């Protein structure tokens, strides 16, 4: 199965979950048109409180649907957009990408992966115990964050369910994803 977008969402208000949309428009250097997190500088409320001038490395949030499958096996029911992502994919291991990898979404949109989403306490408010379920431990004891990746928009375009997702470019040197 080829990697594909299975859902898209946006929300003009800062809430945990986003609203499903038939399509979203990505704007180069800004993010998702009509989304509360779009902008050149940080829009996440906790980050704005610290320093509103910091560049927005979290313009777009992507989660792989395979996470929802894993969560279902653990007794949770999570659907696309409910964890606040703009783009839900299937068939691509987003968490295995290096920092700086570029993804083609649909015909024209190009995004660059900036890092991991660092899950926050709101996840447990959404479903008790979910925070622990989206965190894991590697064999060396290091923390594994599974709540998706963040990206910036390099080239805009319309993205809709059914659109192809492909790795357009990866850096020559692999730098593992870290929280942003």
From TrEMBL:
One of its GO terms (molecular function) is catalytic activity. It holds the Pfam family MOSC. Residues 14-168 form the MOSC domain. Signal peptide: none annotated. It comes from the Bacteria. This is MOSC domain-containing protein.
């Amino acid at each position: 199965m080829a990697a594909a977008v299975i859902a898209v969402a946006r929300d003009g208000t800062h809430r945990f979950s986003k609203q499903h949309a038939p399509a979203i428009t990505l704007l180069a250097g800004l993010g998702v048109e009509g989304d509360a997190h779009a902008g050149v500088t940080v829009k996440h409320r906790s980050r704005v409180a610290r320093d509103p001038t910091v560049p927005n490395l979290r313009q777009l949030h992507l989660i792989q649907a395979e996470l929802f499958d894993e969560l279902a096996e653990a007794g949770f029911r999570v659907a696309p957009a409910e964890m606040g992502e703009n783009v839900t994919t299937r068939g691509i291991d987003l968490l295995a990408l290096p920092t700086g990898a570029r993804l083609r979404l649909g015909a024209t949109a190009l995004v660059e992966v900036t890092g991991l989403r660092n899950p926050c306490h709101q996840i447990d408010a959404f479903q008790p115990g979910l925070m622990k379920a989206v965190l894991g431990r590697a064999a060396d004891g290091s923390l594994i964050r599974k709540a998706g990746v963040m990206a910036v928009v390099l080239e805009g375009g319309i993205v809709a369910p059914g659109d192809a997702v492909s790795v357009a470019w990866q850096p020559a040197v692999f730098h593992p994803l870290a929280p942003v």
